[in-house]
């Protein structure tokens, strides 16, 4: 029995005649399996932990007199949508009587580094799970490379319309009883025809790309928090190199630097940049991640890891802009979030 921490419910295919299901709740994931490594679908799962408070130069911002929290400063959209990888159109989601998302629309384009920010409980993690296919919207549409997705992703889907989607969860989701090698190579052991030696070599290369060496035989309990984050990222970006074509990948990060000290946070933030196609990894190779989306509360992550911001409040997008505009926006709600002031439209 393995346990970890995430949120969703999906079946896993059979292994040597056994069938299993994995239940992701907000506190635990329990997977019943036979002995050995087990099979996982194309969606790659990783993890992070609850957020820490941070005080930086954003705290010096003063609130403006504006009280309008309707969508302001929208980013100009190019007329050509040929580079759009993911589009959410008027997405709604509720859990019982609690309305989480109330008509969210945005696009993720090829090569983008996007941050989703906003107060706790406003639907940021929910939208990531909807993009990943772990949750279905109550209303609205999700398009993957122009193709509308119906319902949840299934175990039989090798790819989602030619796009790989990796989801880095909020809490630690390494399998505790598996070694680092088995965690990182998890997908390949179960879904590829690569030999164990080939997988082992590729795992070593991928760990080196995220700045880790000589940890393949360690268990997660023997790793620091920052090392676990990097192992989780390595598990998300590894792919079958024997395939003729490799689909582009979008990574979804849910609070990737939460629970880390400032220095460890900087390491992870820079790592997110290096594995992007516009970056260069720890061994000097061009990154593999086509685009990524980061849900964060951390000002350092906003500054260092993303180029465009989407601000969610009460289930709606109330502001969009480039990262450098975050510190100069006249929007009262943006200034309150940036400064951490108790005065303003965001109430606790």
Notes on the structure:
Helix content is 22%, strand content 26%. With 348 residues, it is of the alpha/beta class. The protein has one domain (41-75, 110-139, 153-339): Rossmann fold, CATH 3.40.50. It has a 7-stranded mixed sheet with strand order 5-11-12-13-8-14-15, with helices on both faces. Strand 12 (249-254), helix 6 and strand 13 (291-295) form a beta-alpha-beta unit. Helix 4 (196-209) crosses helix 5 and helix 6 runs parallel beside helix 7 (299-305).
Draw up the topology in text.
Elements: E1 2-4, E2 8-15, E3 18-24, E4 29-31, E5 44-46, E6 84-95, E7 98-109, E8 113-117, H1 124-132, E9 139-144, E10 147-148, E11 164-168, H2 180-184, H3 186-191, H4 196-209, H5 225-237, E12 249-254, H6 262-274, E13 291-295, H7 299-305, E14 308-313, E15 316-322, H8 332-339
Parallel strand pairs: 5-11, 8-13, 8-14, 11-12, 12-13
Antiparallel strand pairs: 1-4, 2-3, 3-4, 6-7, 6-9, 9-10, 14-15
Helix pairs in contact: 4-5, 6-7
Question: Outline of this structure?
Answer:
This protein is of the alpha/beta class and 348 residues long. The chain has eight helices and 15 strands.
